[in-house]
Design goal:
The structure is a homodimer. The first copy, chain A, is α/β, with parallel strands linked by helices. In chain A, about 45% of the residues lie in helices and about 10% in strands. The first copy, chain A, has 8 helices and 5 strands; from the N terminus they run βαβαβααβαβααα. In chain A, strands 3-2-1-4-5 form a 5-stranded parallel sheet, sandwiched between helices. In chain A, helix 1 links the parallel strand 1 and strand 2. The longest helix of chain A has 22 residues. The mean pLDDT of chain A is about 90. At the A-B interface, helix 3, helix 4 and helix 5 of A face helix 3, helix 4 and helix 5 of B.
Chain lengths: ~220, ~220
């Protein structure tokens, strides 16, 4: 991919979007970050994101889309009355699913990007993610890309560098990008709002830890070869 | 179409969406209305919408998506610094175009509808509209429908009863639905915030008036036959 043009990264300060931020810095000459608040229990997320973007010299913009959580209170991430599903229910999505979330994020990201003359969007969604949220699937992203182009009569391109990577491969990518330690020590993925290794028992921590162990094992084998 | 189920109507209190509201009341056993504020110059629009919905016995919900106008200040409808284009520029859209507006509206309408068990959405967009806004085209709506279904793993259906009707045919439909006088005297279409016949010189008023005259002429010819 030629290094040119500008990209807008959907950025939350977690492992995935931080890896995407540095992926974008490698592939685009100008990078901006957009972060969304939507009534998350842990607004610490936003401060973590702002600091990482600042240190990476990436302009950071915060958009309040809390309307999305007022519309549907069935999600544990935004409703303090609900305990979080720690396992995926057999017949549905875990209650950490905020319906339409990525669609709202990417739509606003596109409108913002367009106003700045940016038409490349980067998001850290992955099909390899544990829960199978429908709005993380490649098919959805491709359909959304077409819809955005038709809505605004523009040529957006949505980049999903993590789409087919499991968590160990996301760790690997951050290592290739030279930000393995930064991602490991400074990002916030934990649903309970604890930075770096997190609480250790929420679904996000388990997934992150499992991927890290797998990657370190693979790297160790390679180093010792 | 069988009268069953429930529909959510995107409703602004203008000629088009009011016609759609009554179209929905004819075709669905339960109808709700959702209205969007987005920093319009004329918030009177909202009060007009609320009253029409109330009199029609339709639950009315107002959603604030003013974020959309904070993202792009190049539109005259939301930026008081800009004079409104009264004619369409030859090489672009008139500055009454709010980029992504219908995509944001319909996405939030879908999330809200889903939380109420409603999967039929109704919008008054029309390809016959004068300006050729990209987000009023049938292709966009069909693409959005697919994207919404993929985003939430649901089966939404977006209904566009006005898609291929010009303004005279929208008047005709309101007459068929028995609400011609209501639409004529109580709706607000005018960009300058004047109810019914409006200011008479903004693009919306000209379009409405031209359609009305055309329809009345056609109806007169028919009545006298």
């Amino acid at each position: 991919m030629k290094k040119s043009n500008a990209a807008m990264v959907c950025f939350s300060g977690g492992q995935d979007s931080t890896t995407c931020l540095f992926w974008a810095k490698k592939h685009f000459s100008r990078v901006e970050a957009v972060c969304f608040t939507y009534g998350q229990k842990h607004s610490k997320e936003v401060e973590v994101a702002r600091q990482i973007a600042g240190d990476a010299d990436v302009p950071f913009q915060l958009l309040d889309v809390s309307l999305i959580s007022q519309l549907d209170q069935n999600c544990s991430l935004v409703n303090p009355q609900l305990a979080m599903d720690e396992e995926k229910p057999a017949d549905s999505y875990p209650n950490t699913f905020v319906p339409g979330r990525n669609m709202v994020f990417l739509t606003f990201a596109a409108i913002l990007a367009r106003s700045k003359g940016i038409f490349d969007l980067v998001t850290g969604v992955s099909e390899a993610d544990f829960s199978g949220y429908p709005d993380c699937r490649d098919t959805f992203i491709r359909s959304l890309n077409v819809t955005l182009n038709l809505a605004m009569d523009e040529q957006f391109v949505i980049h999903t560098p993590l789409m087919n990577r499991d968590k160990s491969e996301v760790w690997e990518l951050s290592d290739q990008l030279g930000v393995f330690d930064l991602v490991r020590t400074r990002t916030l993925t934990c649903y309970n709002g604890i930075i770096a290794d997190g609480c250790g028992h929420c679904p996000a921590c388990k997934l992150r830890k499992h991927g890290l162990e797998e990657y370190l094992k693979r790297r160790g084998l390679k180093d010792n070869r």
